[in-house]
Amino acid sequence: MAAPARKALRPGLEWEFNQFVLPRDVSRSFVTRYLVELAETEGWELARLGIGNDGMRRITVRRKIIRQQRSVYALY
Description:
Shape: elongated
Protein name: DUF5703 family protein
CATH topology: Defensin A-like
InterPro entries: DUF5703
Helix content: 10-25%
Oligomer: single chain
Number of helices: 1
Pfam family, one: DUF5703
C-alpha cells in the first residue's frame, strides 16, 4: 500500500485516502474478505472501486481523521 493521502472535504472533517490495485486473477470473494478485514480492523470504508478493461481492480478506501480539540481550563 502507498502512503495515505489526506484531504479536507469540508471544514472540520478530514478524510485519509489509500489506493491500491489488485490483479485480475484475484477472486471476488478474496477482495470482499480483504475489504471487510480493512473495515473491521483499521476503520477503512470503500470509497471507489473500478475494474479496468484489463481486469485490474483499482480500489480506493477512506477513513475519517478524528482530531481532538484541546480543552482550555481556567485556573482560579
